[in-house]
Amino acid sequence: MSVNQTTGKPLFIGIDGGGSKCRATIYSSEDAVVGTGVAGRANPLHGLSKTFESIQASTELALRDAGMNLIDSKTLVAGIGLAGVNVPRLYNDIVNWEHPFAHMYVTTDLHTACIGAHKGGDGAVIITGTGSCGYANVNGKELCLGGHGFALGDKGSGAWLGLQVAEQVLLYLDGFAKETALTERVLSYFNTKDAMGIVEQLAGQSSGTYAKLARIVLECAHANDEVALGIVKEGAAYISELARKLFEIEPPRFSMIGGLAEPLAPWLGKDVIAKLSPTLAPPEFGAAYYARQQFQKK
Amino acid sequence: MSVNQTTGKPLFIGIDGGGSKCRATIYSSEDAVVGTGVAGRANPLHGLSKTFESIQASTELALRDAGMNLIDSKTLVAGIGLAGVNVPRLYNDIVNWEHPFAHMYVTTDLHTACIGAHKGGDGAVIITGTGSCGYANVNGKELCLGGHGFALGDKGSGAWLGLQVAEQVLLYLDGFAKETALTERVLSYFNTKDAMGIVEQLAGQSSGTYAKLARIVLECAHANDEVALGIVKEGAAYISELARKLFEIEPPRFSMIGGLAEPLAPWLGKDVIAKLSPTLAPPEFGAAYYARQQFQKK
User: Which residues form the ATPase BadF/BadG/BcrA/BcrD type domain (chains A, B) (predicted)?
Assistant: First the structure.
């Protein structure tokens, strides 16, 4: 097992798999960062072999960054946070992988994000980026809300904001909704004047394509555009409700994570903002922390 | 050119391409059905070669049904209604096809459906099945509304109703909406008690999968289920508005087509129902009629 040369204690690697990136960080037993690596997407729901490939690649980059040999992966204790592993079938696929580590502990990306945000303590998180969801872990009790994916749920997320605004502009072009500053911004974004020009660019596209429209909606909402305000307020109201549901199990700490966490803040409930604390560490830290916990239980 | 043995006039074939089926009917110059054929999907937006294959296959079946030889396709005057041919690129791809007909005239599936519904006369149609859209043609002026596709638009369609009810049930499972008869029906349809069970069956699925939920929503709305009623009324209100927009260009006749046309009727505006007339002929008739019009202009 890889050990810190000074302390003689084992090294841990925390890996955060995501829809666009996989981040790996090697920590010493004293939480010092020894090396980091970033590779491509690692979401088991969208491909198992790509997930394994990205975990392997980010690990190798982190080892190299730490000045270690690739073979040293066999001595690391790994913690991995992945989407979808609450589905038993996927969980089994992952833990049966012939992984390159000494030990591997797998949990949901929500769990590792939450552990990271509160540096190991109990708490709740809301993640609002391309998608949205809520998670709390208090005295071993887990609560997982939303996150049903585009276009089924994920209210208040970037993709949801984008879908709402695209719908509104298409309704306007058909004469069902009025023109606002938002309309003009969206038409100029798509460089078109008609519905077909928008549909051609959005039909069949992934949530990421829709999420790119979120910035326009938020800017227009700040400029008091009526339609944009309506959309942003509806999304923020859902996120506030999500937070209040999480508060019901009395998490000692609450953080928000993701690209939309800050932009949405002005429209969140005052009771929600009052409980908001900064995230203390990244999800990779949470993953390594989880691995250490599980490893010490052995 | 194939001619009616009695009258010596040319034969026309009308072809209606769709997302699931391609229907072809050979008509005499006196509108008598000479032969029919049905093949697989023919939507150029979802594949050009499959579209050509289905047009060819349905034509061959219609020829066989008419007791004609396959080679006789080279003597037919064809009219084809297809989705997406209002996109110039797709229109060019279609008309440049080395088709098996004497002449081929292509227009949108909305146009041929409208000609069919009014047996050649001016008028308006609303199509509500898996998707929804409106179309009117009056004195050569065309109006085309909605039909932006799932999940971007198509309000009041089967897929839209299905998406709304899935969202509502997922919100209920997270504690954001109350339980109604609809909830129970949907959970039993998916044979699950939790959100993950629904998400697994719907994530990434096509509009057709969502449209299968429409029947449940409509039945629950009839039984006065509050949530189902809210969804159905919102969808029907949009369809009514769609009709009123079409009425603005004063179509002499108005029909509704598609699997949801009749089920939605109880919730449509009285002004809309008052103007509703039955469809007089199928889209294939419209396609053949269009071909004859264009052919006689030559």
Answer: 13-263
